[in-house]
Amino acid sequence: MPDAQFGKGVFLNLFDCHTHLDEYPKEEIPSIMNRAAKVGVTGAIAAGTTLNSSFICVELSESDPRIFAGIGIHPMNIDESIDEDTYQTLRSLAENPRVVTISEVGLDGIAGAPEQRIQEDVFRSHIHIAREFKLSIIFHARDSYPNILTILEQEYAYEVGGAAHYFQGDIKTANRLIELGFFISLARPLLRFPELQEVVKSIPLEYIVLETDAYPQPFKRKRENWTEPRHLAEIANCLAVLKGIEVDTATKQVEENLFRMLGHRGNLIKETLT
């Protein structure tokens, strides 16, 4: 995969639509965001994976104008359907204007995952909240296609749309997601998987958003190798090469896609980027 070079004077006005910044020590986050800003990544969404982490993501968003929040319970972090207290707590969080999406929610089909019936019930509850507050849904779908597509359609999730987080599927799945009103969210796998690169060549640029899924990676010996929002520039670079266009052209379209995806809650992000 050849590298595309940023044009002279080009500033990449990028926004990371899915991270787990809440998992980093709080004192590290300003440095992480400063490193991102140096390569043109001006902000990020911190996605919750539990009720507690959703609270932390909201707190982060209120303490740093470059960070916005996603709220939700990850399918691997559930053991029962959402009770009324939890549902109302999520609704209360969704009222905060710094919350711009319901995430990270969805389905997981790996061995040892929670019971599918419970996962589906929890996912449907999140979709109901998303529709009530007109929030997009950035969803997790490991080993869960095509079942998750059925639920998105049954629950009218296309009324709010969103994105398929960390997408690595085939073109048929991508096209069905687009038909349902969802964007395709690409992360660092785009840099290394030729089969995904071929799929992305066929996905219209107007339906692509970008993320890093950044989280602490102590299994990597060197701290500088941990994925951070700054790596979004590499992903944008790769996307531009695959599409045969200048990187600033690609990032401008991706920025527009982000605003379309987030709808009315994207206004604060728009102010951050512009």
Write a structural description:
- The protein is α/β, with parallel strands linked by helices and 274 residues long.
- It has a single domain, classed as TIM Barrel, CATH 3.20.20.
- Helix content is 41%, strand content 17%.
- It has ten helices and eight strands.
- It has an eight-stranded parallel beta sheet with strand order 1-2-3-4-5-6-7-8, sandwiched between helices.
- Strand 6, helix 6 and strand 7 form a beta-alpha-beta unit.
- Helix 3 runs parallel beside helix 4.
- The chain starts with 13 loop residues before the first strand and ends with a helix.
Topology:
Layout: E1 14-19, H1 29-38, E2 41-47, H2 51-63, E3 67-71, H3 84-94, E4 99-108, H4 116-133, E5 136-142, H5 147-154, E6 162-164, H6 171-179, E7 182-186, H7 194-202, E8 208-210, H8 232-243, H9 247-262, H10 267-273
Parallel strand pairs: 1-2, 2-3, 3-4, 4-5, 5-6, 6-7, 7-8
Helix pairs in contact: 2-3, 3-4, 8-9
Instruction: Identify the CATH architecture.
Output: Alpha-Beta Barrel
CATH-defined topology: TIM Barrel
The overall pLDDT average reads: 94
Low-confidence stretches: 1-9
Classified in CATH, the superfamily is Metal-dependent hydrolases
Instruction: Give the count of structural domains.
Output: 1
Number of strands: 8
Helix content: 40-55%
Regarding quaternary structure, what we see is single chain
CATH class: Alpha Beta
Helix count, DSSP H or I runs of 4 or more residues: 10
**Class derived from helix and strand content:** alpha/beta
Overall radius of gyration: 17 Å
Helices and strands, in N-to-C order?
EHEHEHEHEHEHEHEHHH
CA-based shape: globular
Percent in strands: 15-25%
Biggest sheet: strand arrangement: 1-2-3-4-5-6-7-8
Q: Main beta sheet: strand number and arrangement?
A: 8 strands, parallel
Give the termini distance in whole angstroms: 31 Å
